[in-house]
Amino acid sequence: MKFEDKTYIMGILNVTPDSFSDGGQFVKPGDAVKQVKKMLVEGADIIDIGGESTRPGAKDVSVEEELNRVIPVIQTIRQFSDCLISIDTSKASVMREAVLAGANIINDVRALQEDNALSTAAELDVPVCLMHMQGQPRSMQNKPRYNDVVAEVKDFLQARITASLAAGIHKDNIIIDPGFGFGKTLEHNLSLFRAIDKFVATGYPLLVGVSRKSMLGKILNDAPADERIYASVVMAALAAQQGVRILRVHDVKATADAIAIVNSLK
Ligand code: YH5
């Protein structure tokens, strides 16, 4: 797949019963459909469907549970839309079933490090987002540590690109993501955001997800998730301005307006 030269909006659809900001709202396919239609009308280019909660402290889910959450939703979306769908998973079997059901993109917060993920992604021949995470969701936010966060995240992503290419994944199918909030303090996240130009300069399309994350809450005197929307949109605009190609967001309409402003100034 060849990405056009524009900033894509990836709308978040959580199908986990424990999602922080939309706690279990979108578990029923009917409810999920409503949210997907709203995001598409508002300007989403991609719908990102995740059945494993990867927020800090989240527990593991079984393959069966993850499949039960995501596959019916993908099948239902395919009955009314040919929009791009990404599947937010680290499990090879979920990647496979999701793509067979109509998903177009793999979004893996573990950068294809789980069993059979590299070979499965190569075989499915769809774009894949390789994200950096230090540790595992359960414990990643307890004392993250780096000597040089930008260098370490860049080196990790480069190593995963090398592994992906060696497994037969096409260069044009690789997307990279520094993984904001995944085993990072506020200072780590800010250092990475200041270095966005360095990630863009790799030539691989860059995906950024900061929407409603606790890094914004920390800057805003511990604002709760539903009061982090303006800050999320500002960060999205700053990212788009610097050449970020995919913005993973909860608030699609607000982000689409911000991108329109950024584009008008080019
Ligand atoms: C990402 O950055 N993030 S799930 C905690 C929050 C708010 C939001 C406490 N999947 C990313 O969105 N995939 C997630 O407030 C992702 N990049 C990619 N590629 C975490 C999330 C969130 C967590």
Q: What would your notes on this structure say?
A:
α2 links the parallel β2 (46-50) and β3. This protein has helices at residues 29-42, 63-78, 92-101, 117-124, 149-166, 186-194, 196-200, 214-219, 229-241, 252-264, and strands at 8-14, 46-50, 84-88, 105-108, 128-131, 174-177, 207-208, 246-249. The longest helix is centred in the middle third of the chain and has 18 residues, at 149-166. By secondary structure, the protein is an alpha/beta fold. Mean pLDDT is 94; it is low at 20-26. The protein starts with 7 loop residues before the first strand and ends with a helix. It is built from 10 helices and 8 strands. The chain has an 8-stranded parallel beta sheet with strand order 6-5-4-3-2-1-8-7. The chain is globular and about 40 Å long. The protein has a single domain (8-265), classed as Dihydropteroate synthase-like (TIM Barrel). Bound molecules: ligand YH5. Ligand YH5 binds at residues 20, 54-55, 88, 107, 109, 129, 131, 177, 179-181, 207, 209, 212-214, 225, 248.
